[in-house]
């Protein structure tokens, strides 16, 4: 009886061991897909192209936004010039001189912002980040100058 129990126990043990061994072999066969250098190279190239396209799209979007802002500044500058011309008789000579100085500063800062935007068109990599920061700063300065010019008509 002991011998029979031992035989059944050993048969069960070997059956389970065989079952697990076959399961491991199937798992090994599944994960034994061959990835070649060429596959990795191709996928890396595709990822780089996608990243480059995304970056280019963001760059173009940013440039469109900046050009739109410059166009808005142009319109506001023209509106201020018209307002100044219509109120020329009401403004004191000192106020006229201050307004003219504000408009000259505004024109210079608008030109600087436009130049930064032109630089952005051809910039890439780290230069893009640096020039973008400079363009943002130039637009902020332009906005401050516009507010200063507007202040001449706020009473």
Polypeptide structure, described:
This protein has helices at 2-30, 37-86, 93-122, 125-150. Helix 2 packs antiparallel against helix 3 (93-122) and helix 2 runs parallel beside helix 4. The chain is mainly α and 155 residues long. The relative contact order is 0.08. The chain is rod-shaped, with a radius of gyration of 36 Å. It has a domain at 50-81 and 95-155. The model has no long low-confidence stretch (mean pLDDT 78). The termini are far apart. The chain has four helices and no strands.
Please sum up the structure shown:
With 155 residues, the chain is mainly alpha-helical. The chain is built from 4 helices and no strands.
Ordered list of secondary-structure elements with their pairings:
Blueprint: H1 2-30, H2 37-86, H3 93-122, H4 125-150
Helix pairs in contact: 2-3, 2-4, 3-4
Termini separation: 114 Å
**What general form does the structure show?**
rod-shaped
Oligomeric state of the chains?
Answer: single chain
Biggest sheet record: none
Please report which band the strand proportion falls in: under 5%, 5-15%, 15-25%, 25-35%, 35-45% or over 45%: under 5%
**Broad structural category:** mainly alpha
Sum up the structure in keywords.
155 residues, 4 helices
């Amino acid at each position: 009886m002991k011998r029979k129990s031992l035989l059944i126990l050993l048969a069960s043990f070997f059956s389970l061991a065989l079952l697990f061994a076959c399961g491991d072999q199937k798992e090994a066969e599944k994960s034994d897909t061959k990835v070649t250098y060429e596959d990795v190279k191709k996928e890396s190239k595709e990822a780089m192209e996608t990243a480059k396209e995304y970056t280019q799209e963001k760059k173009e979007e940013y440039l469109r936004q900046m050009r739109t802002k410059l166009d808005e500044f142009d319109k506001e500058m023209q509106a201020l010039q018209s307002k100044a011309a219509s109120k020329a008789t009401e403004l004191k000579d000192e106020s006229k001189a201050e307004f003219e100085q504000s408009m000259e500063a505004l024109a210079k800062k608008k030109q600087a912002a436009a130049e930064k935007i032109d630089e952005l068109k051809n910039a890439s990599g780290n230069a893009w980040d640096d020039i973008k920061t400079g363009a943002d700063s130039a637009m902020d300065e332009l906005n401050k100058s516009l507010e200063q010019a507007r202040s001449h008509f706020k009473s």
